[in-house]
Amino acid sequence: MPVAEAGGEGFTTAISPASKSIRVREPSQTTVAASSLTATSGKIIYVATNSRPCTTAAGTGTEADPFCLLQSAVDVAQPGDTVDVVGMIPIAASVTVKTSGISIVGIGNQAWIEGGGPHAALTLDHVSNVTVSNLMITTYGVPAVAVVGSTGVSVDSSYLTMNPNFRGATTLTVDGASSDVTVSRTYIDEGYWSAGARGVTIASGASNVTLASDVMATAGITATGVTGLNITNNTIQRGCDSAIDIDGASSAVAIENNLLEDANPGTDYALGGYQSACTAAGQSWAPDVVVSAASAAGTTADYNDFYIYGSDATPPYSWAETVYPTLTAFRSGTAQGIHDTIDPIPPTDMFFRLNESNNIDAWPHPGSAALNSANPNAPGKLATDFFGHSPYVARGAIEFVNTNPTLAVALAAKNTSVFGFSLTSTIASAVEPLTVSVAWGDGTTTGSSLYGDGTVNSTHSYAKLGTYTITVTVTDNLGIAVSNSVQVSTQGSQYSAYGPRRLLDTRDGTGGPQAQVQPGHSARVKVVGNGGIPSGLTAAVLNVTVTNTASGGFITAYGEGDARPTTSNVNFTNGQTVPNLVIVPVGADGYIDLYNGGWAPVDLIADITGYFTKAAASGYSTIAPARLLDTRDGTGAARSQVAAGSSIPVRIAGNAGGLLPSSGITAVALNVTVTNPRSDGHLTVYPSGQQAPNASNVNYTQGQTIANAVIVPVGADGSIRVLNGGWAQTDVIVDVVGYYSTAAKGAYVPIAPTRFTDTRALPWSPAPVTARINHFLVLGPGMDATAFVLNATVTNTTDAGHLTVSPDPNSLRDEQRFPVTAPNTSTLNWQAGATVPNLVQAAAGHTDGIVDFWNESDGNIDLIVDEFGYYQNS
After folding, report:
1. 3-state class of 237 per DSSP?
2. Whole-angstrom Cα distance, residue 227 to residue 178?
3. What's the rounded mean pLDDT across residues 60-75?
4. Do the Cβ atoms of 666 and 618 come closer than 8 Å?
5. DSSP of 256-311, one letter per residue?
6. pLDDT digits (tens, 9 = 90+) for 303-332
7. How does strand 136-139 pair with strand 481-489?
8. Which of 89, 173, 371, 569 to pair with 747, CA 20 to 30 A apart?
9. Average pLDDT, the chain
């Protein structure tokens, strides 16, 4: 499994080392055997056709003075001699061999003969035991090789091609008086398909012919009236005519282990063996293998592999004058082809000789049905393939060899934001072209290319929170592919509305002992499993109230098992009842601790209104702070105080001048203020359509003005209600700062609580905030945060007033700050000499995250700001 490493800002790096790479397509294990030239018992005669201008016979055939014409060498050769050929004859010069028992060997890969007629470029005329190997022969309208009246002839590892401007001739011919002829590991190319021209023709009367491990381009084989014919392990990319045609009354014919494929528009021919091109040219569309009625009884066919281009649906066989459109039909009708296959993966093109084009798709790919499936006992099967590779267990002429055994990919995926990741793919490979595909696990893929070893860096942002498996597949130009995967989880959390519901009240023993919390001690709040609250929480939204205080102090909320932070959530003085909303991480055991940092025992109350998980739920959207309700002036309701025991509705959906959507809101983030109360009491904010819960959001005393942040679910009708739990009427103000909905993306990242500013002591901001001044803070430069979760506390207040928090549109790079004004909203309210905290979900006006804190009083204040987390959209 991938290993997780710690990262910055709570982010992690998920790692899957290169050793976890999986071979997507594993090749057969092969080794390359060195080719050996034909041994000789006689002398070596040398031909170097490029050694001098050569228009007439020249040279003596020694290494020091080679012949310049091949005909000169074969004329003087005696049985047992070997003719070594180097270079390319610059003019058309046909060669006829009439001496038996000799070998003609090309040295290097450019031993090139050109023949222009009227005879074949190389004619083996009534000879026996002649071997031709490693020659390149190009001809113009005549055969490259003609075997005439000969026996024991071998043409091996050669390259035979027709000039495409001279069409109509067959590339290699065997006449009816020849026998024991083998053509092996030889490239045979017509140059350009033309009707009636074939790669190999074997005339009636010939016997014991083997065509093994040859590659044929836009070519085919025709054998008429042959006795003893093995067509084994050839790769034939046919033209419009059939790949193999057994005609007349042939017998003892075996057709096995061949790869028979259609051409396609990507090959080098203007007209190839794909149906649409043949039809357009007025040509027939023959089955791949055609066996006449007179030859059927003496022919066996099996272990052949067919690749059909596109939807051409080549019939694989015509057998005894019956065309079989499918292998199933062929097997049923003939009991042949039991092990034949249709290949889902085509071979790809390749070069066979320098200075020559890649005319045929012959290189097999991993996953091909041809691999590891040949009949090892097929008549005429060779021990090594076209290139000398062994073991040789594939159908067709070429064994797949893993030329990139070190191919591997190591992955490191790091959270970069709540939805985003950076992925580093470190690739080990031979020096070959590579394609790199990244499947991000959400249905999207990205791709890139590389050449050999290297690193590919990719980035991605998920549309939804969740756990995803990233899979990287690296494929080289031969189709060798490896993949590696790493599982990642998005870092952000989204909100699920819940309650409100009381989890703790030390006054009556709800959720814990009925006893005050002693100074320096904590009350435990069970969250997970309480009232069906699920596991996997990253944070909970609680309204924490301290009451029955006998001294000043503070309350700190934190996840049980975590280090207690040095920040505070609720500040109080002797005799105060103070509520504050907190968004606090939940401990691994499902509990939250509330620490009493005062000098005397206190009672604590905790009400939950929702929680965050890493699963997709409701995202957060900020809006410009807007006032929804003010009973003092008739905003959002009648101009009248809320009566004792009564509730007032507040429309959420579609409100705030259209800043709030008309549907889909699951919860809303508010600042609720009580003012001008005629008695002590509390406010409870809850979804419309429900009974008021046993919970409170704002606690107040007679005549007090106090505010508290509230996150509350929204009722089905798009509204909430505010209940006056006091003994007399009061004014209520409701300001909105954001909302949660399933359509929104904003996800929350809790951080270790951090004191961001303290104007009482910190050296970078030692002075109090003066009257009517905006104190701006740069909270998140370059992090693309949309909002910050803060706790703002004012203290050392010299005059009554309120604090307004709003986004600042300026950036750090603005040479001249654009003027900003405070909105008509409040975040917290105070009386002179009071210390007042409140949670703030502060929108960021710019990617630099600058937030304004307005001292709306006529006296100085000290400001303390603690950060607990932030929201991002990407």
Report:
1. strand
2. 11
3. 90
4. yes
5. ES-EEE---TTSS-SS-SSHHHHHHTT-----SEEE-HHHHTTEEEES-EEE--TT
6. 999 988 776 778 999 999 999 999 999 999
7. unpaired
8. 569
9. 87
Q: Are 148 and 158 in contact (CB under 8 A)?
A: no
The tally of CA atoms less than 13 A away on the side-chain side of residue 54 is 24
What is the C-alpha separation between 351 and 358, in angstroms, rounded? 4
List 3's β-bridge partners, or say none: 15
b or e along 535-568 (b: 16 or more beta carbons within 10 Å of the residue's beta carbon)?
eebbbbbbbbbbbebeebbbbbbbbbebeebebb
Structure tokens at 58: 């020249």
Please state, as a whole number, how many other Cβ atoms lie within 10 Å of the Cβ of residue 469.
13
Strands 420-428 and 408-415 come out as antiparallel
**Closest C-alpha to 299, from 230, 255, 244, 253:** 253
- Asked if 555 and 576 count as a contact pair (C-beta separation under 8 A), the reply is no
What would the mean pLDDT of 360-369 be, rounded to a whole number? 85
Residue pair 466/489 in contact by the 8 Å Cβ criterion: yes
pLDDT digits (tens, 9 = 90+) for 144-190: 999 999 999 999 999 998 876 666 688 999 999 999 999 999 999 87
Segment 853-867, tens digit of pLDDT: 888 899 999 998 988
Mean pLDDT is highest, among 20-29, 474-483, 484-493, 835-844, for: 484-493
The verdict on whether omega for the bond into residue 118 sits within 30 degrees of 0, i.e. cis, is yes
In the chain, what percentage of residues exceed pLDDT 90?
Answer: 58
- Cα pseudo-dihedral 717, 722, 727, 732, rounded to 10: -130
CA-CA distance, 373 to 383, in Å (whole number)?
Answer: 15
The pTM of the whole model exceeds 0.70: no
Most confident of 374-378, 481-485, 614-618: 374-378
Q: Could you give the CA distance from residue 655 to residue 665 in angstroms, rounded to a whole number?
A: 11
Nearest residue to 761 via CA among 686, 829, 853, 863: 863
pLDDT of 819 above 80: no
What does the pLDDT average to over 557-578? Answer: 91
Beta bridge partners of 757: 865
Sequence-separated (6 or more) residues with CB below 8 Å from residue 739:
620, 621, 623, 652, 660, 661, 665, 667, 668, 669, 714
**In 3D, which of 310, 428, 305 has the Cα closest to residue 365?**
305
CA-nearest of 277, 404, 261 to 346 is: 261
CA distance 85 to 63: 11
Taking the C-alpha atoms of residue 599 and residue 851, their distance in angstroms, rounded to an integer, is 34
Query: Cα(135)–Cα(159) distance, rounded to whole angstroms?
Result: 6
Judge contact between 571 and 579, C-beta under 8 A. Answer: no
Please state the separation of Cα 137 from the chain's center in Å.
48
- Compute the distance between CA of residue 381 and CA of residue 395 in angstroms, rounded to an integer: 10
Reduced to 3 states (helix: H, G, I; strand: E, B; else coil), residue 200 is strand
CA distance 351 to 546: 83
Residue 159: phi, psi to the nearest 5?
Answer: -130, 110
Burial class (CB in 10 A: 0-12, 13-18, 19+), 459: exposed
The β-bridge partners of 47 are 67, 85
Q: How far apart are CA 420 and CA 9, in angstroms?
A: 14
Select from 297, 288, 290 the least CA-distant residue to 315: 288
Taking residues 276-297, report their average pLDDT.
87
Residues 6+ apart with CB under 8 A from 472: 409, 411, 423, 425, 436, 437, 438, 439, 483, 484, 485
Q: 19 φ, ψ to 5°?
A: -65, -15
pLDDT in tens, 726-735: 999 999 999 9
Whether residue 656 is predicted with pLDDT greater than 90 in this model: the reply is yes
Give the span between the Cα atoms of 644 and 869, in whole angstroms.
37
In this structure, what DSSP letter does residue 431 have? S
